[in-house]
Structure formats: C-alpha cells, structure tokens
Amino acid sequence: MSGTRGALFSRVDEPSRMVRQILAVLGGLVALAPRRTLAAFETVAVDVDTDAESDEVMSVPTIRPWVPSLVRAEGVLLVLAALVGGRLYRLVIGAVGVGGSIVVTFPRRYQRLATRLIFEDPDRVRWHDRSTPLLRAIGALYVAIALAARRSGASSADAVVAPTEAVAGDDAER
Questions:
Q1: Which of 46, 86, 142, 171 is the most exposed place for a label (fewest CB within 10 A)?
Q2: At CA 8, angle to CA 151 and CA 98, rounded to 5?
Q3: Residues 6+ apart with CB under 8 A from 94
C-alpha cells in the first residue's frame, strides 16, 4: 500500500497529501452512498413533522429525484481532483473555500436556497435550531481545508501522479 500511495502522491508534500487523501476518502464515500449522505444530512439538519400525540411521522420532505445523482457527481469530482491535482484541484479547492465562506457568513440564506433546490416541497421543510451552528462549523471546515491546501502549496501542484524516472533521450542531456 505504501508503494502505491508513494507513487500516487509522491510530488505532494505531507500536509497537502493529507488534505488530498481526506478529500479522496470523503468524496469516495459520498459517491458510493449519495442517498445515505443525504439521509444523514436530513437527520441532523431538518425537522420531521410528527403527530404530538402518537409520535407518528406525519410528513418527510421529499428530495428531488436528481439530487442524489448530483451528490454522487460531487463525490466523484472530489476524488478526481484529489488524485489528479493541477488545475482541477485548484478549481475544486477554491470552490470549497468560497462555498464555505458563504455558508459561514450567510447560513440562513444558504438554508433557504438549499431548501428550494433540494426538496420538492420546500414549504414543508423545517430546519433544526442546531442546523445554523452546524452549517457554520461545516463552512469553517471547508474554509480551513482550502486555506491549508493553499498554504501547503497543494493548489499549485501539477499532478499527484509522479512522472516516470527516465524517458528515452533524457540521459543524453545530462
């Protein structure tokens, strides 16, 4: 495993390597289980209407049918960006930082926008009281990841995959 990891991440310094590995793992989990990711998000952030007398669930907000596919694509993009590097990684890590900044600064506006985009019945969605500090924490984490990547120079890495050691004709130039 260490030989494979060394080959894939050999041109990246240790802090960058760690950020990229975390992004690859998180992206992989999201890509493999987009519905579970959305369910976890709903469980933590969204209230479900229940009957006060019987504790029976009255209504669960319905997620738009295309949202799980979009979540899966986001996961795949994170994995690709983490493994490939270069311009794609710079763009993705920049978007992560900008998105995090927006969520930290305007969590309630983010909630309203996400409600309209994600749910078919946005008027039935009620956010937990704890969702605002939770969103701010997630946004701050995104900003921290983007800043860590920028400080470590990861955003300027051309590629994670190391080039071959010797190419025909290289010895003649040395």
A1: 171
A2: 35
A3: 146, 155
d(CA 144, CA 103): 13
* Total tally of structural domains belonging to the chain: 1
Element (H, E) at 58: strand 57-59
CA 45 to chain centre: 17
> Does residue 32 lie in a domain region?
yes
Dihedrals φ, ψ of 10, to 5°?
A: -70, -25
Q: For 118-170, write each residue's pLDDT tens digit.
A: 999 888 888 988 899 999 999 999 999 888 888 776 444 444 444 344 444 44
Residue 172 belongs to some domain of the structure: no
Residue 167 lies in a domain: no
- Which amino acid is present at 18? M
Say how far apart CA 15 and CA 129 lie, in whole Å.
35
Supply the range of the domain harboring residue 134.
Answer: 2-46+62-162
Q: Which two three-digit tokens encode residue 70? A: 């979009």
Residue 54 lies in a domain: no
